């Protein structure tokens, strides 16, 4: 038996050189397949991050938006809102690589051989949900928001008009649709004068002539608050004092003419020339207020599934006059992929992807809700869903 026979091939005569080359080619193919499989499995770790991280991120963001929209729709129908937070998301990836070969070697005729490689990837994701319930979360929903949140939003560049309309129920005795801070009222709210105040502040803010800052008034002068104090001041620039917007604000809020610094105080109180009293909404009240931006199907209005708000003349009140420039949620089938959509009570509700103002308001609501929700409490009931195919 020669060297060729040692490779498991019985040959004779002129076939020796042909079969030797064939055996060599098969050996190279096997070696190459093994190298490719090992190389692929060796890069699997980094590749799984590239293939999965963005997808999980997008899914979490999309479903968070859907949940908030769902709860707004629930509130419009006077149904109970419910929040389910993703407490954890993990996934295990496992790869298996293998190679095998078969062949037939008859004493005469065609020699046949095959080589095959396998590479399998298994993913086992596990999602853990935490219901946001309990005394702490409910109190966070019902308590007026911290005035510091307005300061954070202002410093982050958010429009004063936007966060005031959402989270301020009254300023200087001027109401911002207070009856809309709960279930839909039967009579139209009072809101026009407040919208004017918010618009004037936004105009001055866009010119960088007004801002919210930390501080307090001591002896009539502005100062940095001592440690532990949470005073907030509304400051106007000197050019602002010469503007028509400032003079109109001064008249509406009863402020001291020509003064550039005012202390912002939470709670109802008598007007003072150096102070601006504001009443803040809770997160739940802000959600109720925003829920009036939902366009309810006419059949649900007629059936009484939602409250019909009437004007003083007895006509149907158009809530778009209150929330139209802030948030708009349509019903029906969208013409293109929406920013957020949800199906409820047999109807589809969505926010148009080109409605940038609504998207901004929606993002702000999500941010403040996240601030109020805080950390997921430990020890609470959880729902864990292993995903398998």
Please provide a written account of the structure.
The chain is of the alpha+beta class and 389 residues long. The chain folds into two domains: 3-131, no CATH class; 144-363, no CATH class. The chain contains twelve helices and 14 strands. It has helices at residues 3-6, 15-42, 44-76, 135-142, 147-155, 160-167, 192-206, 244-253, 283-291, 298-303, 320-323, 356-373; strands at 84-104, 112-131, 168-171, 174-175, 210-214, 216-218, 221-223, 232-236, 261-266, 275-280, 330-331, 340-344, 347-351, 383-386. A six-stranded mixed β-sheet has the order 4-3-10-9-8-5. The chain has a three-stranded antiparallel β-sheet with strand order 1-2-14. Strand 12 and strand 13 form a beta hairpin. Helix 7 runs antiparallel to helix 8 (244-253). The longest helix has 33 residues, at 44-76. The radius of gyration is 34 Å and the shape is elongated. The chain starts with a helix and ends with a strand.
Strand order of the largest sheet: 4-3-10-9-8-5
Question: Which outline best applies?
Answer: elongated
- Percent helix, as a range, is 25-40%
Strand content: 15-25%
- Per DSSP E runs of 2 or more residues, the count of β-strands stands at 14
User: Could you report the average pLDDT, rounded to the nearest whole number?
Assistant: 82
- Taking all Cα atoms into account, the compactness measure Rg is 34 Å
Query: What's the story with the biggest beta sheet?
Result: 6 strands, mixed
Give the helices and strands as they follow along the chain: HHHEEHHHEEHEEEEHEEHHHEEEHE
Q: In terms of quaternary structure, what is this? A: single chain
Structural class: alpha+beta
What is the total domain count?
2
